[in-house]
Amino acid sequence: MSVKENALSILALGGVNEIGKNMYVIQYSNDIVIIDCGAKFPDESLLGVDLIIPDISFLQENKEKIRALIVTHGHEDHIGGIPYFLKKLNVPIYATRLTLGLIELKLKEHNLLGDTELIQINSDSKLEFGEMVLDFFKTNHSIPDCLGVTMHTPEGTVVHTGDFKFDLTPMNDQYPDIHKMAKIGSEGVLVLLSESTNAERPGSSPSEHLVGSHIEEAFMQAKQKVILSTFASNVNRVQQVVNAALKTNRKLALIGRSMVNVVTVAIERGYLEVPDGMLIQPQEVDSYAPERVAVLCTGSQGEPFAALSRLSSSNYRDMSILPDDTVILASTPIPGNERDVSRIIDNLFQLGAKVIYGSGTVTGMHVSGHAYQEELKLMLTLMKPKYFIPIHGEYRMLHQHRLLAESVGVEKDHTFIINNGDVVDIENSVARQTRKVAAGNTFVDGVGVGDVGEIVLRDRKQLSEDGMLVIVITLSKTERKIVSGPDTISRGFVYVQNSEDLLKNVNRLVTKTVNDLQSEKIYRWNIIKQTIKKELGQYLFNQTKKKPMILPIIIEI
Amino acid sequence: MSVKENALSILALGGVNEIGKNMYVIQYSNDIVIIDCGAKFPDESLLGVDLIIPDISFLQENKEKIRALIVTHGHEDHIGGIPYFLKKLNVPIYATRLTLGLIELKLKEHNLLGDTELIQINSDSKLEFGEMVLDFFKTNHSIPDCLGVTMHTPEGTVVHTGDFKFDLTPMNDQYPDIHKMAKIGSEGVLVLLSESTNAERPGSSPSEHLVGSHIEEAFMQAKQKVILSTFASNVNRVQQVVNAALKTNRKLALIGRSMVNVVTVAIERGYLEVPDGMLIQPQEVDSYAPERVAVLCTGSQGEPFAALSRLSSSNYRDMSILPDDTVILASTPIPGNERDVSRIIDNLFQLGAKVIYGSGTVTGMHVSGHAYQEELKLMLTLMKPKYFIPIHGEYRMLHQHRLLAESVGVEKDHTFIINNGDVVDIENSVARQTRKVAAGNTFVDGVGVGDVGEIVLRDRKQLSEDGMLVIVITLSKTERKIVSGPDTISRGFVYVQNSEDLLKNVNRLVTKTVNDLQSEKIYRWNIIKQTIKKELGQYLFNQTKKKPMILPIIIEI
Under which main EC class is this enzyme filed (chains A, B) (predicted)? Predict the structure, then answer.
């Protein structure tokens, strides 16, 4: 990206037209600041892919200009890409105390701790990079210690909200700093980037405090063990579970690696208060009276290898769910996870448990951490931006957010709905979206980063749907004829024992195809292979309506 | 199943602990009646499987006893298995006029029309099979012409509700016959089988009539074309769309094969009234003023090849969605389909359309066809059964339905939550669940029925996640050494061009493995293959954290 001197440019490398892998770039003149570096979990169409991270080739090309990675909060879609990012680029990371703790956990897992400068900031910090001056404001979200970012440039002020809601009765004094936001707005905002997750939802999101009273009530009524599953990162909700356990005189066991990790960091850093002696090990659970113990575990999204799933299928060594235990799913399934969550609920009922589940507003066991429409309008009203870029959402959310912006006075053509890679340039207070840089998905598969792509995934898709057929033929170079084979190996296609006739016909067809070619004096391997693929593919599709991958292997001796 | 003389047995071959492939079997002495023969769509874990139908081996073993297949209504999960069933068993089919029309469509597609006796019945019909006497009662559901089934046997009366709700202001006079149900209940019901789809939902389902007023309002407000997508089989909703089009003076085009088919059958058989000249062809749409035309199409569940998906991606030849057109999704995504539906909504917004979407109760554009809790309690109260078998639902739904039954007086141990294949035997008015017959899933994949199973699917899963590596080696029998290869073919594993070093090391490792074995005078192919798989699998996992399928191929010359 060739940027003019004294020009301001804004772009996303991830996070727009999607939920996940947030990464935003603000450049003024020759200084680049990155906001967030998230990951995204693949949907079922990305066969075998473990994680998706942003394509950072634009940053690699401009690495000498990068001054900082600012991280707004400690959720996976904002920090999950950091280890992969650091393997390519060494950039100092700025974040609050809890967020840094969670980043450190991640770097430790990847053996990267110590390689990069980690700088703790808070909402009063001020940072200068070239002619950019950054300061911050407190927001409230489903994890503590969140920041919005204000970037003052000679061209004007850019505000990035991070993830937020306006919870005015928050846990642990995590009030959104409305006064500071108002002041920023009064001083003039050139561009606002605001998150759009719940832009489709009318009204305002309920306070996290409401969840607390429902958890407490469930703990009171439970006659046996209570098992509660929620996102480990929702430290405020964890605090409410601790409070309910305390009030009902229960010990608390933690199950699930991320639950143990996050709770440990949160206690160490002062974001979670747990009385001494309350925490017990999972294997101690059974030694307490059931009405004196509770369990807090991961897996509320139905993840097959997480604690709740293993507990529900009696596949966890240290303790069991017994009849009349109470299981609480303190979350709402993210679209795509409903089936896995439902399967767990079925299993829990079969174990005889009392299960409290359903969408959060029905059970009162979950509230969203993201602003609804009225809150988004409040942010827009506080900031009064000249230009608006809705971020952090799929297209329909960005679209609805644009309508909200118009409803509170942002001019119609002053909202930019961008794709990842689209650049908004602002010069002399006029914003234009005209150019594009490289952006996209980088797939993490096993330890490989970027070593699978569309061709590999297309092959996996074909293999997954109809399997494959390997055909091995040995040809004599001198006699120009088949000396052994065809031998057929079928995987993922049909049961061999049920399909003997089919496979015999396959062999006959391949033999005939090869013999015909030989008699026409066609000996070139690639022609023989292509012809086998074509003839056999046609035959198999007619017979089975399947299109297995056909791999002819020719050995010449 | 060896049944005693004069004994009554009830079982499900599909439909319990699942939504889909409903098939229930009632046997008295030597006479078997089957109720429904449905199919089910596979979830994403069943790679490449097109359709799931019940395993009918129990029926094949008892074919001389089967007297009838009674079909309660024309939905896929009740009729979708019929073509596959008829290829194995020739059984007369009894159903109402519309249901038979939809079954005939299906048989025509499979070239089976005329092979089997199709007998039209209505709610006044009476059928006798041995000592069983069957009669029927009208119910209301999201498709017209639905029946409940009453089976009188010397042992007592068995009632099967079919799918139902209590819509007391229904479309087209499809009133549930509450008086007849009350009479059946008064005369005594031994066993009730009642559907459980919405057993988790409190209250009563709204009337289909409410949808009509919302559709009409949207048609009134639309300034351009209206495109409405719903289930083709919901003939009553289609009628309301026709009415709204009539009221707003719009022509109506139908897009999607099943929409055209179902509407044609419904008009022919008198379940749908469409004024002459109202229907136009899709390619005529653009020749009308946009405010004078509407489109009714399939694909409301986000099916990738259905009409709405193609329209939303501008991938449909005959007409286009233009800015300011109104698109209505008159349905709620079935769990698992949310992502596909969301993608379509995103695309529609990008085309500039006004999109009316969201859960049915919010937009008023959809109501469920299945009874909520209060309606299920009404059915249980009307029927006053001694024994209760909740059907048509996943475990948690059956479980909640059991609690509802208890709440209206069914004795706690008189409810049987069964699995497919579990038999409930009733003798001397006492029900017991003690034995099991073969039951399960038969997969339809292409034209193959039952030719894929767990091994094939396991292979597909491995192939889909990590791909495969074929290793070809040619060994000399006389010299006992490798004469050519190893040659490596990688598909769905890694990009070859990015992984040259890895693949070189693979070749080195295989060569060494084979040479080592040869020098130890180990020549047996299966040992060589096993050793290659083990060594190479270990190496590749260490290097890549992937586990591709490894297929060593040895040619001996």
Answer: hydrolase
